[in-house]
Amino acid sequence: MSDSGQDSRVALIDFRTESPPEGLSYGERIVQDGFSVTRSLWSPNPGTLISMEQPVVIIHEGEPFDMEWQLSETEALEHRRVVADDIHIGMAVQPVFLRWRARPQALVIALEPSFIDHVLREASGADNSGLRTRIALRDPILQAMAVAWRKELAQRGANGWLFAKSLATALTVHLFHTYGDGPQSIRSVKGGLGTRRLRRVTDFIEAHLAEDIGLRELAAVAQLSPHHFSDAFKASTGMPPHRYQINRRIRRAKELLLGTDRPITAIALAVGFASHSHFTDQFRKQAGTTPLRFRMDRK
User: Fold this and answer.
1) Is residue 78 classed as helix, strand or coil in its secondary structure?
2) Last residue of a domain, one of 178, 196, 218
3) What digits encode the pLDDT tens for the residues 30-47?
4) What pTM, to 2 d.p., does this model score?
5) Confidence at residue 77, expressed as pLDDT on a 0 to 100 scale
C-alpha cells in the first residue's frame, strides 16, 4: 500500500460479539446461527485499516458524507461521497484502509463462512469462491432486501428464525451469484418449484396470512428471481402466488367462522383483509355466499 497516513494496526470487527470495538456502537440487532444483522453508528475515523471477521454487506442509512479508501491490491487512494442506500461489500479478514470525518449510520448484514458454504452448495453445488471488496455500489435487489431487514429489526425478529434465515439465504445467493470471484451456476427450476421449495414457500404463506406478502418477498424465500418464481409457483399450484394467498385466507376464514364466535370484522383482519367489505367480496367470489350466511347455514 502507498503511504496514506494510516495507522499500521488493523481494527478487526467481529459482528457476532455483543460488545463492539471502539469507534462503533450498535442499535437494534438480530443474531442467529450463521448470520447477524445490526444497525450501526460509526465515529469519525481519521484513517484506519479495518478488517471484518465475516463477509459483510453494509448499507448506508444516514446523511451523505465523504469517504476515502484504499484496497489492499491497489495503490490509489479513492474518494467518493456516500449517500443513502450506497452498499459496501467486504470480504472476511481482508483489510481496507478507510477514512471519514462524519458519524455514518449503516445497516450491516454479516454472514458466517459456514453458512455461506452451506447455502452455495445447496443452491449450486459449488463451494464459496470468495468475494472482492466493493465500495459504494448501487444494487436495487440488495436495497429491496434491506427494507425487509429493517422491518425485521423494528419488530425485533417477530417473524421468527425461518423468515430471517430465508432473507439471509436469498442475500447470500444474490451476493455470490452477482459479485463472486468464480462462476456460481445457480440451478434453475424447470416446470415447478420442487417439493421442498414449494413446502418452504407455502409454510411461509401460512405463517403470514394476515400480512401483505409481495412477490419479491416470496421469491426471496424460494431463492429465485421474482419472474422465475411466479412461473414456477403457478406450474406447481395451478394459480399465481397472489391468488393462492387469497384462497388460503378464505379457507382459514371458514375455519374461524365455524370454529369460533369472533366477529366477522375481526376474522377479516386476522386473515389479512383490510376491511369487512373487501373480505366479503373475496369470500363471495370463493364460496358463493357471504361470511355471515356461510356461518348461519352451517351452524
Assistant:
1) strand
2) 178
3) 998 899 999 999 999 999
4) 0.59
5) 86
pLDDT surpasses 50 at 271 = yes
Q: Provide the 3-class DSSP secondary structure of residue 254.
A: helix
What total of structural domains would you count in the chain?
3
The confidence score (pLDDT) of residue 130 equals 65
Could you tell me the three cell numbers for 158? 417477530
Q: 289: domain range?
A: 244-298
- Last residue within a domain, chosen from 198, 215, 238: 238
The cell for 81 is: 461521497
Task: Select the more confidently predicted residue: 183 or 164.
Answer: 164
The reply to whether 173 and 207 lie within a common domain is no
**Alpha carbon distance 12, 50 (integer Å):** 6
Residue 155 and residue 43 share a domain = yes
- What is residue 131's DSSP assignment? B
Nearest to 149 by CA among 58, 52, 262, 222: 58
Tell me how crowded residue 57 is: count the other CB atoms within 10 A of its CB: 28
Q: Which range has highest mean pLDDT (5-14, 56-65, 145-154, 235-244)? A: 56-65
Asked if residue 195 has pLDDT above 60, the reply is yes
Quick check: 183 pLDDT over 70?
no
Alpha carbons 19 and 126: distance in angstroms, whole number? 34
Identify which of 69, 97, 95 has the alpha carbon closest to the alpha carbon of residue 82: 69
Residue 128 has pLDDT above 60, yes or no: no
Q: DSSP assignment, residue 208?
A: T
Output helix, strand, coil percentages for the chain, rounded to the nearest 5. Answer: 40, 25, 35
Alpha helices (H) along 51-160: 113-124, 140-154
Helices within 125-259 (DSSP H only): 140-154, 161-179, 195-207, 215-222, 226-237, 241-259
If asked whether residues 25 and 137 sit together in one domain, one would say yes
CB atoms inside a 10 Å sphere around CB 159: 18
Examine the domain organization and report whether 105 and 226 are in the same domain.
no
For residue 185, CA distances in Å to 83, 111, 178 come to: 32, 20, 11
